[in-house]
Structures are given as structure tokens and as C-alpha cells.
């Protein structure tokens, strides 16, 4: 028997009015692994993440965190259950300091000592944020802002971290640094990461497994190595 996945999505369907964005999507993210969700613009990747976090209503299917069913639960219940999302776009509050932005991530109201401990963990992962903790977020580069929004999500100490296009617009060495931190979270802390990326080549270089979406359907799901070695799949859907 296969082990229960940390996160499982079964036959999920979601629409925006007449537009079907997810058409029976089934994926699983194994515990302590990085699972990539790949596909072109409009494939349904963002909708999938937002459905899992309770931000987009679904019409059928299931979302399971371990054995716990979270289908159609509120976004707050889902966050409390242990799923945190890093949305696309690096929304930081530029008038607040780095540390104030990080504290905003503590949606669940952790005790002060524990919050301090988590802040120190984030600073250990991203030393540049520690250096700039008292500076306004306005002064940060794109890569630093991406680190900040990831750090903010970590303040909830999630079991499952969902990331939407963290590499977008960043230089390759910054992407490598951020992906290295994801790898560390998975390997050292046993976190489970679901990584949405259009940059399939980079994503498959750090992911353990992946699913490819096209027009709201899963067209492939396998280990990262198998997906990266499939020439037809790469040419048809992955753009490299
Ligand atoms: P991208 O990388 O461009 O964000 P994606 O793979 O994340 O692409 P989604 O954003 O999930 O894809 O979009 C899936 C489909 O749903 C597309 O056809 C898109 O046009 C449509 N869609 C997404 N958001 C909305 C919305 N708010 N209203 C109407 N249609 C939408």
C-alpha cells in the first residue's frame, strides 16, 4: 500500500463563469518532497494552488491534507490546518520594515517566544533579510522581496508550502539560491513543497516529482528525472 501523501487533490474541478480552469485534476505531493506543477500560461496552475488554499471555489473533487478532508473549507481553516501559500507577485508592504512584514505572516497568533524563534529561523535561511530587518521593504530587490514573502509564509510553520512562480523575473543565481532554501526546508525540516513554475527546466532541476497541466487537465505526472528526460513532453508542454 502506498503511504498517504501530505497533500492530495482528487478529480478537482473549478470554473470562472463559463471558463473551466480545472477539469478533473488529480495530483499528490509526497511528504518531505518538492513536487512541481508545470505548464504554459493559462494551464490552470494558479487556480490549482488557490483552490487548495480555499481562495477559489471548486465545483467537484476533493482536497486532502494527509487523511483530513479540506474540500471547500475556509481559507482560515486551511491555513490553521498547516497549508501556507506564497502568492505570485511578491506583495510586500513597502512602508513597513522587513521584520514587520515577516510578523504579518503570523496569521495564527503564535506566542511571542515561538514567533521570535521562527523569525530567527527565517533569518538563518535568508541572511540578507537579517541584515535588512529594520529597513523598509521598499529598499529590497526583487529577489529579496521573494525571500521575504517566503519567509512570511514560514512564520505559520506550515506543513505544506505552496509557491506560485517564485522564479519569475529573477536572475538565475537568485533563483538557485531560493530553490536551495526550498531544498533545505524539505531535506532538514521535512516540509512538503508544491511548486508552481513556468520555468520548467529550473523547477525540474530541484523537484523530486512533477505534474504537467494543460488546459486544466493533467497530461503527465512522474518523477522529475523522467519528466525532464521526455523529449516529446518537453517540446509540447515544457518549453525547453
Ligand atoms: P499563469 O501562469 O498565466 O497564471 P496558470 O497556469 O496559472 O497561468 P490560471 O491563472 O490558473 O493558469 O488560469 C486558468 C484559466 O482560467 C485560464 O483560461 C484563465 O484565463 C482563466 N482565469 C484565471 N483567472 C480568472 C479569472 N479571475 N476570471 C476568469 N478567468 C480566469
UniProtKB/TrEMBL annotation:
| SMART domains, sorted | AAA
Q: Which residues form the ABC transporter domain?
A: 7-240
Pfam families linked to this entry: ABC_tran
Stored Gene3D superfamilies: P-loop containing nucleotide triphosphate hydrolases
This entry's Gene Ontology molecular function terms read:
ATP binding; ATP hydrolysis activity; branched-chain amino acid transmembrane transporter activity
What GO terms in the biological process aspect are recorded for it? L-amino acid transport
Q: Does Nucleotide-binding appear among the keywords?
A: yes
Give UniProt keywords alphabetically: Amino-acid transport, ATP-binding, Nucleotide-binding, Transport
Keyword presence, Glycoprotein: no
Family, per entry: Belongs to the ABC transporter superfamily.
- Its protein name is Branched-chain amino acid transport system ATP-binding protein
Q: What is the lineage of its organism?
A: Bacteria, Bacillati, Actinomycetota, Actinomycetes, Actinomycetes incertae sedis
Amino acid at each position: 500500500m502506498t503511504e498517504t501523501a501530505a497533500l492530495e487533490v482528487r478529480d478537482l474541478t473549478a470554473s470562472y463563469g463559463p471558463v473551466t480552469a480545472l477539469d478533473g485534476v488529480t495530483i499528490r505531493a509526497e511528504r518531505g518532497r518538492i513536487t512541481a506543477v508545470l505548464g504554459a500560461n493559462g494551464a490552470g496552475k494558479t487556480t490549482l494552488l488557490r483552490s487548495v488554499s480555499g481562495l477559489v471555489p471548486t465545483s467537484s473533487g476533493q482536497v486532502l491534507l494527509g487523511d483530513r478532508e479540506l474540500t471547500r473549507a475556509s481559507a482560515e481553516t486551511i491555513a490553521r490546518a498547516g497549508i501556507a501559500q506564497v502568492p505570485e507577485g511578491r506583495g510586500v508592504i513597502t512602508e513597513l520594515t522587513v521584520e514587520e512584514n515577516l510578523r504579518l505572516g503570523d496569521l495564527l497568533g503564535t506566542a511571542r517566544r515561538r514567533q521570535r524563534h521562527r523569525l530567527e529561523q527565517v533569518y538563518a535561511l535568508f541572511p540578507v533579510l537579517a541584515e535588512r530587518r529594520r529597513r523598509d521593504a521598499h529598499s529590497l530587490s526583487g529577489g529579496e522581496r521573494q525571500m521575504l514573502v517566503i519567509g512570511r509564509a514560514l512564520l505559520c510553520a506550515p506543513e505544506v508550502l505552496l509557491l506560485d512562480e517564485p522564479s519569475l523575473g529573477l536572475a538565475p543565481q537568485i533563483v538557485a539560491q531560493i530553490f536551495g532554501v526550498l531544498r533545505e526546508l524539505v531535506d532538514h525540516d521535512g516540509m512538503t513543497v508544491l511548486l508552481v513554475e513556468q520555468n520548467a527546466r529550473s523547477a525540474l532541476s530541484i523537484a523530486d516529482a512533477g505534474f504537467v497541466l494543460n488546459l486544466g487537465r493533467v497530461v503527465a505526472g512522474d518523477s522529475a528525472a523522467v519528466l525532464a528526460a521526455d523529449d516529446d513532453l518537453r517540446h509540447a508542454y515544457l518549453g525547453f
